[in-house]
Design goal:
about 75% helix; mainly alpha
Amino acid sequence: MLGLIITIVVVGLIAGAIARLIVPGKQDISILMTIVLGIVGSFIGGFLGYVIFHKDAGGGFLQPSGIIGSIIGAVIALLIWTRVGNRRSSVRA
């Protein structure tokens, strides 16, 4: 169980960091939020892989995907986060 948690955190950190490097612009988020971004991206990537290919390693609906799917999902999540964040800041100003 501890190994699974450590693996999820490490994959989340790697996927979140790569997604932050790919997406242009400045993202003011901490390392913890980068890990969360990668973990959310992993679930998004797993869901998209299930929807597109209709198969998954465990045959389930929401499964953590591999590192490539995690990065793609983290990029999607970060793009959504930056767009929603920009909209909120422009409404307040």
